[in-house]
Structure formats: C-alpha cells, structure tokens
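Task: encode each sequence below as structure tokens.

Item 1
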Amino acid sequence: MTQVLSGIALARRLEKTEGRGNAAFVDAQARTDPSSGAIWTSVGGTFAMFAGVGSPITQTFGLGIHLPLAAKELDTIEHFFRSRGSAIFHEVCPLAGVDVYATLSRRGYVPVELSTVLYQPIDVTTRIGSNPAVRVRQADAGEAALYGSVASQGWSEHPEVMPYIRDFAKLSLACATCFFAEQDGKPIATAALFMHEGTALLAGASTVPAGRRQGAQNALLDTRLQTAAANGCDLAMMVAAPGSASQRNAERQGFRIAYTRTKWMLEA
C-alpha cells in the first residue's frame, strides 16, 4: 500500500472530494426540488454552494487551497450568497495559508466552528473487524423514506434537527452509495459513501439508540471501504468534530489526522 503523507497535495485531493460530494448533493436537490433554488458554482478553484438558507451545505469548500485567493473572487463569492439572502460561510483548510485567514479577518469574518479531516490509504485487503450478527446491505433507490427515517432516529437526542437529517438522508440516495446495517432483520444504522477520482468520502453515519454498541458502524465502515477499494479508490476520508468520539473511533480503525479546518462566518 502506497504511503500517503500530509501536505498540500493531500489537502487539495481531500478538499476537492468533499467539494464534489456536496456539489453532487446540491445537484440532486435541484433536480428533486427546483423551487429550492439549489445551485453551486466554482470561483477561482473554490466551490460555492447554496442548498437553502440555513443549510450546513450552504458554504464554500477549498477557499484558497487550489489557487491563491484574490479579492475580486472573494467579492464574487460573497455576492453569490448575498443575492440569495444567505449568510456567508467558508470552511477553510489551514494549508491554504495564514494570508487567507488574515484576509477573512480583515473583511469582518469570525471563526465559528472547527472540523478535523482524517484519511487512510486503502486497498482490497483493508478490513475492519465487526460483529457477524450485524448484516450490511446497500439501500435501494426506492428505500429513501426508510433510509431517512432510520438516519433521523440516530439524532433523537436532538429532535430539533431530526426533520433536516431525515430529508438530507433521503436525498443522499440520489448522489451517493448508501447502506443499512441490520440486526435480526431490522435496520439499526445508516452510512453513505461518495467516490471521486480515487478518493472515498465516508459520511452520514447514524445509529438508532437501541442499536448502539452492537458494532453497526464498524460493519458499515468495513463494507464502505471494501466497496470503495473495489471501485478503484486508494484513499478514504471522513470529517469529525475535534477530539470527538467519532474522531477517536476513526483513529482506532487506522485513520490519521490530515488537518483541522476552521469555518468562518461574515458578521453582519
């Protein structure tokens, strides 16, 4: 297995994959609900996407990581969001450089969130140990409602976000490869896989409260890595809150930290 080290080349690959993954979601939303106004564009190598006011996907990815950040391009990006009545958010990789951070600060942006990006080289021999009593299968296109329901139940401790999670998960079937983990024939967890140019983006992990601590997410991770490798991917990535249980679990399974991003918001 080829060794992959942290650096600008890796950062560009990871940021491009996540940008493409979110752009695919926006395209799916636009097809499913044209009235949503969902749209994305690329400005100076930066993905700017609108999936509705307040959506966590309504932001940029890759700001300053692919090409130097120019003031006129930032003007264009800001107009893209303002013209749609949206607040302006940028998810910024630290390898974009301190000048990008300084530019955002001068323009009135403030940091509002951190996220850790993790990665792992993979091949067909990559395996994750899991509970044999948990069966994983791919979700069918006609199971969007079931997939959304199971995914949202994993957020039952936060009822205010359950409707969004349900709708987000349902739409994921139109732009990603999605899976159920089942125990005794009942779905207890969900997870999604998006692949772009050899990189596998792992997202959408959710387990219903009654199904936790049964190894469902390990089983889903194993299946997604196998699926990605079988489709020619040699690198997997995921995103977690810094220091979270999700990050620790990823590290236990061989993932390494590539970098920690900062999300910036333009103050009104």
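Item 2
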Amino acid sequence: MMYLGIDEAGRGCIIGSMFVVGVVCNSETLTKLKNLGVKDSKMLTRNQRRKLFNIITRIIPKYYVVEVSPREIDSVNLNILVYNAITKIISQATREFNIEKVFIDQVGVKEKLLHIVRSTGFKGGVIVESKADRRYVVVSAASIIAKVLRDNHIEELKKLYGDIGSGYPSDYKTVNWLKEYYRMYGTLPDIVRRTWSTLKNIAPTEYRVKRKWG
C-alpha cells in the first residue's frame, strides 16, 4: 500500500520562500521511519532533522518539492498557493505511483482542501487534519524534508545578506535586520514578503496591503 504525506515549511515567515513537500512511502517504509524516530519537525533539533533528512530521502521511493517565492506570496492568496502546490504534488505522485491514501496537514478550510484533492481525479482515501504532522509518520517525514530545505534556503540567503535570523517576524534578529537594512537603503530586497504587517512600522514605504487568506 502506497501513501502520500504532504506538509509545508515557511508559511508564516517574512523572509524567504515557502516549501511544500510530498513524501511517498509504503507500509514497510512507514514502520522503518517510525522506528527511526521520525516525528513532527518542530519536535526535533536542527541536527536531528538533518540526520533524519539524509535517512528519509535515502529510503523513501520519492519526494516532491514545490518552492513558493516571496514575490508569488505577495501577489496571490497564500492558501491558494498552498492548494496549487498540493494539487501539483498529488497529480505528479499519482502518475508515478499507485497512491491509495493521502495525508495532508490542514491549511485553510478542510472541506475546500478535500474538494481540491478530489479535483485532481484522486479517488483513494484522504485524511486532512490539523497537526497531521504529529499524528502520521508520512506527514512527519514531509515536515522534516520541508523544514531542512527551508533551513538550507535561509543559510544561502545569509551568505548574501548577513544574519537575517530565522526569517520569522517573531525573531528579534530578523526584525533588527529588516530595520537596519531599511535604514541604510530605504528599501528592502526581494527576499522580503512585503504584505506582512510587520513592515507597517519598520518599513512603511515597503508595506503592501495583504490579501485575505482563503
């Protein structure tokens, strides 16, 4: 029996891309992942995630990645972007594998997401739950891959722009970097999402009105 688990990382960040990941595995591989300690990426240290990433990507049949840039996030409703990424992943996975069940960490309205999954033509079982990354190992594996890819992305941005912190608006390093960059240049680079309300006070000329999430 083949399963597909889908999760994302970087949805709430003000800096950098969001990564939506789908992981394909069978029952035997699921047991291996569980025994290895695969669980929600937020419950693991950075080193644990990296070690598990290397193992997961080696033993699963395949994984799919959709990277969504800050520019896209600023121009299109965020939930729609996630739905589009999920549609793409399911369509690709079902062409290559006989997927019998899909597990998705819920984004937006559950009924809408279920409708989107069915619109791909997939007729198997579908589980859409909040915190699915804590309940289902296949989603946990997707969360780990997405988080490591996001971490690697931030590390590459740091090489170009200095210590931008984690990229989350709750991170004082990120906020301080935004303030300093804006103070020095009067603008912000394309790595910053301009529709985040964090910019209202610290970089008002760069702020753009954010569309309502669907």
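Check on item 2: Strands lie at 2-9, 18-26, 62-68, 99-105, 125-129. The chain has a mean pLDDT of 94.
End of task.
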